[in-house]
Amino acid sequence: MKLRYYVIQRLITLIPVVLLVITIVFFISHTIPGDPARLLAGQQAGEEQVQKIKEEYNLDKPVPVQYYLYLRDSLRGDFGISMHTRRSVMEDIKQYYPATLELTTVSMILVIFIGIPLGVISAVKRNKFQDHIARFIAIGGVAMPVFWFAVMLQILFYYKFPVFPIGGRISYGISPPDHITGFYIFDSILTRNWAALKSSIHHIILPSICLAFSSMSSVVRQTRGEMLKVLKEDYVVAHKAYGIGNKDLIYKYALKNALIPTVSLIGLVFGTIIGSSFLVEIVFNWPGIGSYVVQSILTLDFPGIIGAVLVIAISYILINLIVDIIYTFLNPKIKL
Amino acid sequence: MFSYVKEVIKTKDGKRKISVGKATAFVLFFSLILTVISGCISEAPSETIAPSETTASPEEFIDSGKLVFSVYTDIVTMDPAEAFVWYSCTIARNCYEGLCEYDIKDYSIKPLLAKSWDVSEDGTEWTFHLREGVKFQDGTDFNAEAVKFNFERINAIKKGPSTWIEKIKDVQVIDEHTVKITTEGVWAFLLDALASHRVFLIASPTYVEEHATDEDPWATEWMHGHTCGTGPYKAVEWVPEQYIKLQRNENYWKGWKGKHFSEVVYQVNKEDSTAVLKLKTGEVDLVNNLAVDFWDELKKEPNLLVKVFPSMSQFYIYMNNCRGPLEDKNLRWAITYAIDYDAMAKAANTEQAQGPLPKMMLGHDNTLPVYKRDLEKAKEYLNKSSYAGKQINLVLSYVTGAKVHVDTALIVKESLADIGINVKLQGLTWPTFAGQIYGDPREAGDMYTFYASSIIADPYGNLYKVFHSNSWNPGGANLGYSNPKVDSLLDQAANTIDREKRIEIYKEVQKVLMEDNVHIWAFTMPYIAIYQKNIKAYPYTQIGDALGNIFYFYDLYRD
């Protein structure tokens, strides 16, 4: 009962946030000097052509009028036509968003299953060499510029040792699996398209490793910190006195408690990398919403910019909502 | 599984010396899984298909397999009535054809879909005799009706290509293979417009009508992503932002004797480093747009050829002639003699400019002076100007991210610092930059690094756009220059069908522009083609088009 009300309450707060995002992005992007119509028409085009494009996209009207038209259309679900892809923004989002979501989900799985164990090792073996190695990996990941790391991975694992493909979501000769969710890996399994499955996994490894290592530092450090705190607690000492083995102690009791704040952090990291995955997407030619929004910004494609930013913002909010709900299951003391 | 690991160590040693923690075990195990997976499913980078038996006679089609052409961005559209930027035109021009074409070795105008043509006494009526037996991809016939249909379509859609056919008043069908084009007055550039790879390409009317709807009577939505022309290739797949797959049109009227590529892939590689790695491994065959930093590195590769050649685009340092300090002619002369031209040309990997036109352009006057740096002369002019003794501050705007712009801007700044002029560099994104250059010169800045490029193999396009006073209006790239003599000469050129007579007019224009010293004539933009050694072009042509930076894939093959 309470859960349902809570969720509805949170979803209602989405509406003013969405409105705020649209307004801010709209006015900021319209203050950038430059003429998107001229850009679309091309350098050599005449003034008439530029004018025609302006009319097509309502660019010749005053900005507040454009704002009102945008709001009015978006209520009907029409987020405009993207100027640089010439399709409706909804179509573009439907195509590009699942790509980013797939990449960030796989990256988050790596962050969780590599980052958390690294944090645990760090805590349990505090100040021994395992701790230093784990910290080195974590800090190194976040210190390296992610695009440099991406190119290094390409040079190492595509050029020097041809093990992985250099980019893209799937091999050129293989058709993507039938679109059910937009996740190539998931769809390949659902349609039993094993060639596509193999190729999709093969293509996602390098970009997800790159993205994961660049974002896992905070998770590692948080886990380490929380584990250290928990391992000092009285109940841990009591458990040791009772003779409960180290393994059980760490994983069944201590980690679960240490994980609670980390879950919150994981939600934040997940939301963040959805928006900041564009560097990895561009280097690895991953056709996601990140590279879409960059392309929109470079071509002053207002519908594209607003649509993409909106999707990223909404994802962030929804992920945090889910995390908050998971939180309550982990710690029954926390009421909604 | 984890407890197994623990157990093994315990029983082996009796006591646990190295406690392989559960966590460590998991990490190791996970990395092992990754390596195993990658080992199992590693794929070699896609290889090029070896050409089939060379013992087959050249009367037959010898498949050169697949050609992979890499570009840093996806195309805008495949529709020939809209495609206007070189990468979109690469696809359009390989799937569609026009009435004439340029010979890319000497830029003479050759017949293509039109076999021959004549012009009336008064120069306004052109009769074209069309090639017979040509079919579109969909099997329908190419004829005069198709030419008329496309004329109407291009005008209705009113995008880039339509700007170059404004002077065509009317297209009349005389009979199935004869069409008469009437121009508004005498227009010198009809043949050039028809030969251009961007202006008047012919699509199948039947196909367009099949896909037209009430709201979209010219099928712009469908033609955006599908082709149906008379050309050698047809687009069969377009994965946006990833690649476009072209397959050979088996009914192409020129036939497929000899070696040709049956498949061409236009691949998008946004990062130059990705394209470079792929060139090295052979995954990409051909690239024509790569930052200068990579050229030397690629020249050392044993299986790649790097061809740098001059284009028909000339790079200038634009100076604002109607406002600001540069209105002063002596100041412009001072700058002219202060610039380090050698450093500029070297940084751009090309030759210094000789006047406003590229050397290979029709009408170029090769008796023009080539300026060299002369700081004494520069200071002389500085003292003659109205800014003698005063501190001069100029703003030079360039396009961020474009290496050619950045390098040139830096050299300008350093060069002018030597005569005491302070240049502030301002990087702008392309939309902002374009807004200023194509806008009102009275509101524009002092200096811009930019080039003047051509749609046709005739200087009229660039000269008009940059130096005619009409180009002060939005859409023109005139930065404040106005000389009625140049205006009348250019207007005269537009009415002069005879190429030789036009050359004389252009020579005069160049003289005036040099005397007025409008801009700094920096260098000719180089085009580049980097490709696998085994890719060749047929002897009647070459790899690389100085006019448009596009490739004609039908004329290439793999040895």
Describe the structure.
The complex is a heterodimer of chains A (336) and B (559). Chain A has 336 residues and is mainly alpha-helical. Chain A has two domains: 14-74, no CATH class; 96-330, MetI-like fold (Orthogonal Bundle). Chain A is 76% helix and 0% strand. Chain A has 15 helices and no strands. In chain A, α6 (129-143) packs antiparallel against α10 (217-231). Chain A is globular. The N and C termini of chain A lie close together (11 Å). The mean pLDDT of chain A is 86. Helix content of chain B is 31%, strand content 22%. Chain B is an alpha/beta fold and 559 residues long. In chain B, α15 packs antiparallel against α16. In chain B, a hairpin with a 6-residue loop joins β3 (100-102) and β4 (109-111). Chain B is globular and about 75 Å long. Chain B has a ten-stranded mixed β-sheet with strand order 9-10-12-2-13-18-14-17-15-16, sandwiched between helices. In chain B, strands 5-6-8-7 form a four-stranded antiparallel β-sheet, covered by helices on one side. A two-stranded parallel sheet of chain B has the order 1-11. The longest helix of chain B is centred in the first third of the chain and has 20 residues, at 22-41. The two termini of chain B are 56 Å apart. The chains are: A mainly alpha (336), B alpha/beta (559). At the A-B interface, α2, α3, α5, α7 and α9 of A face α1, α2, β12, α8 and α14 of B.
